[in-house]
Amino acid sequence: MSASATRLRRLASVAVAVTACGGAVLLTPPVSSNDRASGHPTVESLRQIINDPSAVVPSRTLQESALIGTKSGPLDILVVGGGATGCGVALDAATRGLRVGLVEREDFSSGTSSRSTKLIHGGVRYLEKAVFGLDYGNLKLVFHALEERKQVIENAPHLCHALPCMTPCFDWFEVVYYWMGLKMYDLVAGRRLLHFSRYYSAQESVELFPTLASKGKGKSLRGTVVYYDGQMNDSRLNVGLACTAALAGAAVLNHAEVVSFLKDEGTQRIIGARIRDNLSGQEFDAYAKVVVNAAGPFCDSVRKMANKDALPMICPSSGVHIVLPDYYSPDGMGLIVPKTKDGRVVFMLPWLGRTIAGTTDSSTSITPLPEPNENEIQFILDAICDYLNVKVRRTDVLSAWSGIRPLAVDPNAKNTESISRDHVVSEEYPGLVTITGGKWTTYRSMAEDAVNAAIKSGKLSPSNECITSNLRLIGGDGWEPSLFTALAQQYVRMKKSDGGKVVPGVMDTAAAKHLSHAYGTLAERVATIAQNENLGKRLAHGYPYLEAEVAYCARNEYCESAIDFIARRSRLAFLDTDAASHALPRIIEILATEHNWDKSRQKEEMQKAKEFLETFKSSKNAHFHDGKHQ
């Protein structure tokens, strides 16, 4: 019998209960006799809990209760920041048997972690610097990142995949240069290699990438070198980390911010934090033996809560990306130009049925909602225009966003002018460990280093060593690329028409593939809601997102606002601001049912979401009417 059928049978026993209770049911995982004896779940039982397709994360109320503590019964670690690194720290510590809490001021992945290039990469440019600069430090960075790249893809196979990237060559020197360089990239990857790089002739290249210009730089295309890196759905991977940590025992709470630190009156060591729940407005104390500051670009503001004279360790850099229609790049092939005429990197990557183009790299100020400016958007359009045979238009831009890269300066280094592309872990104030810098690809090892530092600082006693290098995230264990076929064959989308009549609709391939890749083995839960609760309608024309996802995310992924859904649970805000705007009324209507919002709250949600979309340049992006471009 197929793996998919087995999962369906296991789900059947809980589907009715989950539906009847609105999803707010906490299933108690089986506990072995060894677990009872030690007081901590064993590593194997933790894996079973995380990989159980019937497991449900604790409710937000239970998570907040678990954070509230006393001096006599503190958490081992309190994490500040719910990005990739913060959630990685929570997962690492929880799977070592430590008592862990995490608070995030906004939503999981609301900052830099959702605004990335979506690549899981080793760093081709760092390898070039290592070779020509004889820089062993950069070589170590590439080795390390390639190791982590493979593990990220293996631990979340439904959210990550290998992506071929084409580098165009307009003279024979470039052909030899890039071919040799990328073969070296293959060599450095070793057993962590995704696929071998190779050369394609000019004719083969245009067949693979039809919009690629056959002339550029005043020269004819001589061919391309194609190599492989990884690609991900970044915010869904981040939410998956948070939910996996919650299943492992961590108390994770979004929309909750640290307003001050609690200090021991005698030693002045930090022993916890005063936290405000931004949804209810209530404040409470959370005590912990160690606080880990993983606030990304905002880590300096957290450090200044402990010591107002702390020197800055963040050198913020802005990266702007735009999203274009799918016809700009073929599905399954990216285009990367390592060095344009002004020395910048330009790329176009297929992502979730659209094309991401970028990027800029300029100094910026730190703000919660960074916005791209029109000059940056135009720079990207002008840069990709040189390599395409199609007209590049501002009116084709579907969405645009800016993300802040938290480049770090080690406060303990003698030369403070040296900006690190690697991550930095430091404890300048007793009880507060700061982790910053690095990149998405290396979040797991960054978290491991931070937890090791916290264990040393707080003299903690973990039950086992770090296990996250070989730990599938929620929805990843047992996932197969063919899972979507089971969804398409065994489910229908029950849709409620405007007149209130319920009509069945096919679970088409696009919707089934989307659910499979977004939720992994848990996609069947979403399909069950679409079928049993008449929430099978699409949210926006031309996109596979279903109404059922809003209900599922509210019940199972701590989706607490309309922005949480359009930006981090689905990716509508990043893919198409116009489609996101049209979907908002129905999204808010479903969330209102799930969270018991009154009319005032619904109106507030609509206003906040519209303002949020404007930071993606919604008023200047492409607009559609009945599916037609305006």
Radius of gyration: 24 Å
Name of the level-1 CATH class of the largest domain: Alpha Beta
Structural category: alpha+beta
CATH architecture assignment of the largest domain: 3-Layer(bba) Sandwich
Envelope shape? globular
Q: What is the CATH superfamily label of the largest domain?
A: FAD/NAD(P)-binding domain
Low-confidence stretches: 1-39
Mean pLDDT equals: 89
The number of helices is 21
How many angstroms does the end-to-end distance come to? 50 Å
Query: Beta-strand level of the residues, as a percent range?
Result: 15-25%
Helix content: 25-40%
Total domain units = 3
Number of strands: 25
Query: How is the biggest beta sheet arranged?
Result: 11 strands, mixed
CATH-defined topology of the largest domain = FAD/NAD(P)-binding domain
Subcellular location: Mitochondrion
Family: Belongs to the FAD-dependent glycerol-3-phosphate dehydrogenase family.
Keywords: FAD, Flavoprotein, Mitochondrion, Oxidoreductase, Transit peptide
Main location: mitochondrion
What does this structure look like?
The chain is α+β, with helices and mostly antiparallel strands. It has three domains: 184 residues, FAD/NAD(P)-binding domain (3-Layer(bba) Sandwich), CATH 3.50.50.60; 165 residues, D-Amino Acid Oxidase, subunit A, domain 2 (D-Amino Acid Oxidase, Chain A, domain 2, 2-Layer Sandwich), CATH 3.30.9; 134 residues, Helicase, Ruva Protein, domain 3 (Orthogonal Bundle). Helix content is 38%, strand content 22%. The chain is built from 21 helices and 25 strands. Strands 3, 4, 5, 8, 13, 14, 15, 16, 17, 18 and 19 form an eleven-stranded mixed sheet that branches. A hairpin with a 5-residue loop joins strand 11 and strand 12. The radius of gyration is 24 Å and the shape is globular. It starts with a helix and ends with a strand. The N terminus is likely disordered.
